[in-house]
């Protein structure tokens, strides 16, 4: 299935939030700040996926630059970990 191993894991919204928090923690160590709340970033990711947009499909601007950075890192993380969120399942069926 679309670049996934047979033993992929479907994650729930709580798992999604935990992953975003982990990425943010790593980002703070690199850049020492962020302004968006983790839940707002999860909502941004899900909204983008609901619209059929991957992180590479979105043009960065002043308002979304940081959320987009986290979305890019989130996509990479869940792919490496062989995980899918609910929005990804829907996005895969549209493609």
Written description of the protein model:
There is one protein chain. This protein is mostly helical and 95 residues long. It has a single domain (9-94), classed as Orthogonal Bundle (Arc Repressor Mutant, subunit A). It has four helices and two strands, in the order βαααβα. A two-stranded parallel ribbon has the order 1-2. The mean pLDDT is 88.
CATH topology: Arc Repressor Mutant, subunit A
Overall structural class, as computed from helix and strand content, comes to mainly alpha
Poorly predicted spans: none
CATH architectural label? Orthogonal Bundle
SSE diagram, text form:
Elements: E1 9-11, H1 13-31, H2 38-50, H3 65-80, E2 83-85, H4 86-94
Parallel strand pairs: 1-2
Give keywords.
Arc Repressor Mutant, subunit A, 6% strand, globular, 60% helix, mainly alpha, 95 residues, two-stranded parallel ribbon
Concise summary:
The protein is mainly alpha-helical and 95 residues long. It contains 4 helices and 2 strands; from the N terminus they run E-H-H-H-E-H.
């Amino acid at each position: 299935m679309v670049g996934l191993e047979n033993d992929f894991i479907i994650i729930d919204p709580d798992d999604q939030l935990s992953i975003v928090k982990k990425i943010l923690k790593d980002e703070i160590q690199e850049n020492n700040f962020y302004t968006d709340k983790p839940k707002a970033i999860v909502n941004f990711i899900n909204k983008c996926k609901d619209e059929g947009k991957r992180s590479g499909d979105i043009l960065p601007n002043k308002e979304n630059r940081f959320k987009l950075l986290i979305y890019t890192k989130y996509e990479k993380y869940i792919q490496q970990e062989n995980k899918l969120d609910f929005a990804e399942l829907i996005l895969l069926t549209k493609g």
